[in-house]
Amino acid sequence: MKQFKVQSFVLVLIAFVLGFSEFLIVGILDDLGAQFNTPVATVGYLVTIFAIVYAVSTPFITILISKYNLFAGLLVMMGVFTLGNILSFLATSFIFLAISRIVTALVSGVAISLGLTFAGYIAPMSKRGWLLSWVFSGFSIASVVGVPLGTFISTNFGWRMSFLTVILISLVTMAFIFLSLPRDLKVKESSIRGQISLFSDKRIRVGMLLPMFNLAAIYVFYTYLRPIITTQLQFSIGTLTILLAVFGISNIIGNLASGKLSEGPGLRAMPIVFTTQFGLMMLMPAVFKFSWLGAILLFLVILTMPLINSPIQLFFLQVAENDYPQSIVLASSLNSIFSNFGIALGSATGGVIVSHFGLGMVGPGGAIYALIAFLLVVGLNKMTHKWVQSRHSKA
Prior knowledge:
single chain, mainly alpha, 16 helices, 84% helix, 0% strand, MFS_Efflux_Transporters
């Protein structure tokens, strides 16, 4: 039991450092813009670039690496991740920084996919939803501690020190991985064609769009969270750090609620979630005129962001275990892959809206994607219900 707790902590730590690195840009947008004499909207595209590279590279590298020992693969991915952050720390131009972020993005998705595969391997069935929700909470903790800490360090000591903090935590994480995780984990060997057979399942093809449009909706405004707080809602820099921490707590609450949902109604609860998300985002232009009401609204929308994580992750794993066991690692990666497609889509959309219509209109832009997510989950739930009925009738 003690070993399981230690291993669970290590998996959460992996998610934390990956999330810290990925989300850090949101908190230091203004400082990077000032350093490289680049508009904030342009610096915001670092989020888009990272997410696109993350999403496109993850399935290919995951398929290649899943043939080998997953313990060694995880260590190699974390090593390259650390190198990418060292390059960010050393960046002398905006282009250099963008290239360093590409290096980091190439392996971040594979690392969390392997971490989630380890979670499925070490957790008893009764603990799966719990552990998955905590691994995803690692990203939320990164937004609670990492983003405000990175913003504080950047504001007081320079943005390079923020990346140095990520590097140090990454080295500690690699040491914990080496000392605690099982070294014998391999999945059933299969050809590339055998692994991608997972995509022949219509449930998978529809399901993987859900995290994409969920985060597309959120990242229309989340990419510009710092300027929204300081410019639109007119809070001070000191209050900014506090609010980022509070919003991170909201994210953690959402992740833990996600674990509970996966043990109960699962994806059947998501239509209510996306309806709520849509309504809150449509209110943003009116509510953003009032500082504290705007902050409360942001808290509530951010709370909805991770609710889909555990239900959709369990859905992917269950489909793979039942029908495509050779594709377990690939199935583990789908949530993070398509979440990052969503981040890319949302941050790019946010950039267009901010450039042409201003910060106040990011909410309605995100609401369109929340509506699409609602329609997708309604369709997926109907599809899953029919599939269960047909299986029972055959039995």
